[in-house]
Design brief:
Tick-borne Encephalitis virus Glycoprotein, domain 1
């Protein structure tokens, strides 16, 4: 008699735990904070979202992909291509700076120093595929942040 009641309570508890565990790295629309890290660490940001480093000492916002000329998988190219992302960096005192970072080995900059932090574009995902355009909102910037 108590077993069905126990199972129902367990299901409710598991469902609640799973629902609330979306966590700080979940995608959020409209520039919402989706990641909180302590440097050195890596942020995975969707377009229009931001990450907070060291409790607000630095905020990194992924504004947009400015260009993606990376050679699609399954295609032979003469150049590897480049993905460029526009970021906004905000310090604890509210100062802001915009920057564009690149993925290509021969295109600079890949990283920038801002307010005592090194911010580096480690990757842009997903990687392009032939005949499969990437929707602008599907991009994720992988950004490494470390203290100087």
């Amino acid at each position: 008699m108590h077993r069905p009641l126990f199972l129902a309570a367990a299901i409710v508890a598991a469902t609640t735990a799973c629902h609330s565990s979306a966590g700080p790295d979940s995608p959020a629309p409209g520039g919402a904070v989706v990641a909180r890290v302590t440097a050195p660490d890596t942020l995975r940001l969707h377009v229009g979202t931001a990450g907070v480093v060291d409790g607000g000492a630095l905020t990194v916002e992924f504004l947009k992909v400015e260009g993606d000329s990376r050679c699609p998988s399954g295609v032979t190219c003469v150049w590897q291509g480049d993905a460029a992302v526009e970021l906004r960096l905000t310090s604890a005192d509210g100062r802001r700076a915009g920057t564009t970072l690149h993925t290509a080995l021969n295109v600079q900059p890949k990283s920038v120093e801002y307010d005592g932090y090194d911010v580096t574009l480690a990757d842009v995902q997903p990687y392009p595929k032939a005949q499969a355009p990437i929707e602008p909102g599907a991009y994720v910037a992988v950004i490494s942040v470390s203290r100087r």
